[in-house]
């Protein structure tokens, strides 16, 4: 790894800043084409039903309607990232309220929506499964009897692994230490078991999904999309459409907000078939209501933790059972084992014997997808309260108990990964130094939490061109979902070549002119794109030293080396002060401290922005955001008026403390930041509420209603 010493504290100009603040930057909803039609979709009003008949004759007869397609028209076409189980248009069965049964293309949005209202669908209702535990009952309706026939990218043509229950989407057992934990539990000093629930939540972006699709005269398909994994989208669309990837051009427009929620977008698929049927461009711009009623969500979860400790308070063994509500389809999951994320074992505590039993199941609810910290949020909410419950029962101070059990040098994570230069102890010590010493009044208390996160990996390439006048152009295939990716690339290239950042121009390419990239997500972009940029810079430097003149083009590549030793893991600690009104249960946030370990910070302004934004994101999911369903499976928060998002008046003063540690795997020793500052907000607030008024909530968000019910002894 390059160890060149450089100064990243120089004044910063964001590469795309002027376009954004001036309003010139084009988002997907801004893109249009001559003759473009508008798309709209007829959706199911039932959580589970058989389609008996679809009558589109009245819709096709309306003025301005150019095409109406059903599942019968396009055939059985399923989409997905690993498992292709989500029908582009349902053919025989609908599996959640909002499942699409027909697609319309019309001259205007109003005409398209009128045509949708004219479509008559006859359904035969089927028993709906709305609860993940009910989905595993022996007599539960099988929601995907065709599952063995679905294409599964990870397995390809290999035989599919068996499932313990036909409603299981994905399952995984992770273990280390003794194979049989029961003897350890039997002889332990104490054994603690607690169960927690996590809700469905939206990613919270303000810019809903949108797309525009057209076919050129050569039959090439052009797609503008906010999808943050364009090469993955190209692969999926090629399979669904039955054409070669080379026939598809994905152009990622400005994404706007993402927060983990735009790794899968589904609108491009029906719009492709509409564009093919009409011979004209077709665009779709989703409303906020459609996004909340029909879009993907964070996985709801039931997390059960069981831990054995010795007489000195050290963890001896741990068993987790996590049941994720995967919703109607598993299509949004990019992980081969079809579970949300890879963070199940990233718990910052030393436990020698572990078994993690993880499952995601089908239900007749909104399809679940990755949202920022896709498994960490649910896991840390449970773990950081579980740890405090154990500490309290054993008579330990909660901070001292964490320091007693935090992973240290030579320790491994729950899954057996060795931690490279663990900084958990240093982060906790820094938090302890920052905590105010004065006592707080009644009803007011601080809660703490300790979390950690992996730096993400993958393989990527960038193309760099050195011009005769010393300018450098860098072409990348990674989209910027708002965190300043292009500025990072500019600053890394400039530092590696020891030139001014102004001499480096960065451009995002389409899937035709850029090299393949896995997309934004999992805190990997600075790591892998930054290292590929360093590689390109080294090749340009070598060309210069070889006496090359004139334009010189090179390709920089990087593949994540994880698995060759220790894991690059960052640690974070939180202390959040709340005030709780016993009469109403209202929780007011008064103060917050966030401590994390860092390596080289490439972009100081964006780094702090990630921390601030992540904290606010976590705050919203902690105290207000939730997608409840009514008894029929219908979303009860169908607008942003009901689905609350935090504003600046909700945000308490936040103090950030950076602990300098060992270099990370990123360029110049950078470490991850994107998914650290929100994963501990929810448990820190829940712990603070307990210390303030003595009630412990085992489900979030931590709303006034839940706190009041707990204070009244009226738990659900």
What is the gist of this entry?
This protein has 716 residues and is an alpha+beta fold.
Spell out the blueprint of helices and strands:
Layout: H1 17-22, E1 37-43, E2 49-55, H2 57-60, E3 65-70, H3 71-74, E4 78-79, E5 83-84, E6 86-87, E7 93-94, E8 100-106, H4 109-118, E9 120-125, H5 132-135, E10 151-152, E11 168-176, H6 182-187, E12 190-198, E13 210-215, E14 221-225, H7 230-241, E15 248-252, H8 268-278, E16 282-285, H9 288-294, E17 300-309, E18 315-325, E19 353-361, H10 376-394, H11 398-405, H12 424-434, E20 444-454, E21 459-466, E22 472-476, H13 485-497, E23 504-508, H14 525-545, E24 552-559, E25 569-580, E26 587-598, H15 604-623, E27 654-660, H16 681-693, H17 704-711
Parallel strand pairs: 1-16, 14-15, 18-19, 22-23, 26-27
Antiparallel strand pairs: 1-8, 2-7, 2-9, 3-8, 4-6, 5-10, 11-19, 12-17, 13-14, 13-16, 17-18, 20-25, 21-22, 21-24, 25-26
Helix pairs in contact: 10-16, 13-14, 15-16
What's the CATH topology name of the largest domain? Aldehyde Oxidoreductase, domain 4
Beta content comes to 25-35%
> What's the pLDDT, averaged over the residues?
93
| Name of the CATH class of the largest domain | Alpha Beta
- Specify Rg, calculated over alpha carbons: 26 Å
Poorly predicted spans: 1-5
* CATH homology-level superfamily of the largest domain: Aldehyde oxidase/xanthine dehydrogenase, molybdopterin binding domain
Report the sheet with the most strands, covering strand number, pairing sense and barrel closure. Answer: 7 strands, mixed
What's the N-to-C terminus distance? 54 Å
Total of DSSP H or I helical runs spanning 4+ residues: 17
- Give the strand tally: 27
Strand order within the widest beta sheet: 3-8-1-16-13-14-15
Q: What's the architecture of the largest domain in CATH terms? A: 2-Layer Sandwich
Query: What is the structural class?
Result: alpha+beta
Helical content stands at 10-25%
Number of domains: 3
Shape category = globular
């Amino acid at each position: 790894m390059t160890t060149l010493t450089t100064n990243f504290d120089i004044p910063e100009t964001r590469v795309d800043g002027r376009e954004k603040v001036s309003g010139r930057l084009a988002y997907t909803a801004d893109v249009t084409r001559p003759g473009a039609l508008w798309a709209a979709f007829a959706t199911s009003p039932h959580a589970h039903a058989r389609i008996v008949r679809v009558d589109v004759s009245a819709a096709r007869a309306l003025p301005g309607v150019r095409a109406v397609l059903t599942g019968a028209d396009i055939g059985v076409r399923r989409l997905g990232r690993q498992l292709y189980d989500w029908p582009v248009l349902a053919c025989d069965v609908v599996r959640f309220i909002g499942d699409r049964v027909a697609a319309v293309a019309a001259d205007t949005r109003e005409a398209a929506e009128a045509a949708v209202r004219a479509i008559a669908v006859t359904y035969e209702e089927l028993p709906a499964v709305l609860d993940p535990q009910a989905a595993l009952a022996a007599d539960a309706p099988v929601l995907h009897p065709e599952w063995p026939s679905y294409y599964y990218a990870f397995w390809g043509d290999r035989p599919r692994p068996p499932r313990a229950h036909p409603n299981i989407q994905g399952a995984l057992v992770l273990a280390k230490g003794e194979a049989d934990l029961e003897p350890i539990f039997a002889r332990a000093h104490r054994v603690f078991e607690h169960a927690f629930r996590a809700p469905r939540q939206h990613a919270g972006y303000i810019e809903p999904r949108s797309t525009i699709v057209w076919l050129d005269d050569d039959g090439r398909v052009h797609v503008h999309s906010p999808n943050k994994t364009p090469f993955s989208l190209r692969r999926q669309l090629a399979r669904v459409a039955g054409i070669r990837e080379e026939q598809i051009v994905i152009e990622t427009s400005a994404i706007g907000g993402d927060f983990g929620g735009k790794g899968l977008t589904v609108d491009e698929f029906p719009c492709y078939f509409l564009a093919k049927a009409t011979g004209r461009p077709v665009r779709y711009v989703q409303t906020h209501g459609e996004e909340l009623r029909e879009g993907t969500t964070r996985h709801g979860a039931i997390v059960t933790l069981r831990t054995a400790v010795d007489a000195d308070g050290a963890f001896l063994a741990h068993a987790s059972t996590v049941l994720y509500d995967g919703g109607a389809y598993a299509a949004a999951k990019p992980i081969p084992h079809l579970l949300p994320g890879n963070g199940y074992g990233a718990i910052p505590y030393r436990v020698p014997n572990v078994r993690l039993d993880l499952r995601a199941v089908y239900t007749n609810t909104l399809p679940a997808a990755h949202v920022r910290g896709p498994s960490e949020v649910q896991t840390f909410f449970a773990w950081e309260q579980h740890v405090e419950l154990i500490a309290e029962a054993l008579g330990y101070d909660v901070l001292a108990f964490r320091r007693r059990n935090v992973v240290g040098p030579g320790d491994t994570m729950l899954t057996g990964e060795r931690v490279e230069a663990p900084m958990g102890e240093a982060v906790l010590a820094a938090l302890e130094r920052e905590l105010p010493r004065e006592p707080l009044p009644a009803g007011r208390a601080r809660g703490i939490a300790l979390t950690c996160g992996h730096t993400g990996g993958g393989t990527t390439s960038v193309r760099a061109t050195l011009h005769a006048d010393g300018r450098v152009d860098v072409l990348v295939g990674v989209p910027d979902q708002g965190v300043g990716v292009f500025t990072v690339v500019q600053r890394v290239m400039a530092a590696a070549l020891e030139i001014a950042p102004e001499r480096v121009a960065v451009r995002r390419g389409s899937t035709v002119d850029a090299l393949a990239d896995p997309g934004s997500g999992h805190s990997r972009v600075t790591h892998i794109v930054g290292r590929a940029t360093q590689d390109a810079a080294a090749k340009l430097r070598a060309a210069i030293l070889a006496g090359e003149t004139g334009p010189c083009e090179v390709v920089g590549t990087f593949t994540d080396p994880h698995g060759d030793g220790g894991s690059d893991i960052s640690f974070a600690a939180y202390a959040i002060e709340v005030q709780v009104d016993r009469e109403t249960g209202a929780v007011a946030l008064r103060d917050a401290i966030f401590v994390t370990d860092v390596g080289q910070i490439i972009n100081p302004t964006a780094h702090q922005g990630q921390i601030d934004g992540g904290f606010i994101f976590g705050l919203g999911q902690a105290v207000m955001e939730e997608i409840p369903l009514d008894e029929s499976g219908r979303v009860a928060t169908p607008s942003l008026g009901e689905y609350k998002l935090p504003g600046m008046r909700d945000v308490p003063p936040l103090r950030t403390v950076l602990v300098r540690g060992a270099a990370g795997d990123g360029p110049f020793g950078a470490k991850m930041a994107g998914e650290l500052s929100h994963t501990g907000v929810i448990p820190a607030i829940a712990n603070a509420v307990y210390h303030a008024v003595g009630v412990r909530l085992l489900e979030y968000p931590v709303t006034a209603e839940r706190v009041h019910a707990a204070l009244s002894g009226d738990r659900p």
